[in-house]
Amino acid sequence: MDLRIFVEPQQGASYEQQLRVARAAETLGFDGFFRSDHYLKMGDVSGLPGPTDSWVTLGAIARETSRIRLGTLVCSATFRLPGPLAVAVAQVDRMSGGRVELGIGAGWFDDEHLAYGVPFPPLGERFDILEEQLQIVTGLWRAPVDGQFSFEGHHFTLVGSPALPKPLQPGGPPLIMGGYGARRTPRLAAAYASEFNVPFPPLEVFTDQVGRVRAACERIGRDPDDLRYSVALVVCAGENDEEVELRAGHIGRTVEDLKRNGAAGRPAEVLDKLATYFEAGAERIYLQVLDLDDLEHLHLLGEQVLRLLP
After folding, report:
1. Among candidate residues 283, 293, 310, 304, the one with its CA nearest the CA of residue 237
2. pTM greater than 0.85
3. I need a surface site. Which of 35, 127, 151, 216 has the fewest CB within 10 A?
4. Displacement of CA 61 from its chain's centroid (Å)
């Protein structure tokens, strides 16, 4: 099982804070450092110093790390045109030495679109935009170096693009897709994704959604085991019950809620929770760390959870 660290910087985190977490995660042996792609805080937090752009941030972190995988959970297809997105991700892939993964989805948070002047079409149209983005991004990355790429869709048209730069990873960075959609989400994941992620699910919801994706793979003749299946879980661990309670309070959550809907408790309890998802088919787990200043929490997870995994 791979463990990755996942952060939500729009809740209030500077670049420097994110870099410290990424470096600590790399030193401790975690497989990846991933971040959300949002421009507006959620809930009753200050959000200071304000949002940071995902690919600007990851490009900078790429130059300050050497091993850890880097990526998004997940980019909103409404935020960036597909051509510039392909260019940005390809560039960061080269800056990182080929360590980038692109998580991408249709977008959902209407308030942040209004706050920053980004159009927010209806859900069906957003999925149409996402599908064209997937076609364009992968097409640009996979086009011959000495060739051109053209595309004509309902939302985007490209004519004679040189399809440069190319990512360092052959064929382009792995694509991560996810969510709870019953029809289009599984279909698009089966067609384009390397990994399917279910964020913060009850165990039975995870297994149901994975079943839908596997069935979608079979319908197009793809081996369902060709995808990697993963979950994201809020994590809150402590050496003892008092420490768990203290950390839960710092992120505005109760221990009971975190144990029910995340991975919380002493290290042995966290390991037990991860094991239930692993046995259900999750090969990778993203541990959502909400207090980015608590590096002792990361060390505890690295030394008493990560090192004990099979």
Report:
1. 304
2. yes
3. 151
4. 16
The Cα 304–Cα 301 span in angstroms is 6
Would you state the structure tokens that stand for residue 266, as one six-digit string?
A: 């002493």
> For 14-165, where are the alpha helices, taking DSSP H only?
15-28, 54-62, 82-96, 110-116, 123-142
Q: What is the pLDDT of residues 108-164, one digit of tens each?
A: 999 999 999 999 999 999 999 999 999 999 999 999 999 999 999 999 999 999 999
DSSP state string for 239-293: SSHHHHHHHHHHTT--HHHHHHHSEEESHHHHHHHHHHHHHTT--EEEEE---TT
Q: Of 267, 279, 275, 270, which Cα lies nearest the Cα of 303?
A: 267
Give the residue extent of every domain in the chain. 74-171
Token reading at 98? 């080929």
Angle at 32 between CA 234 and CA 57, to 5 degrees: 95
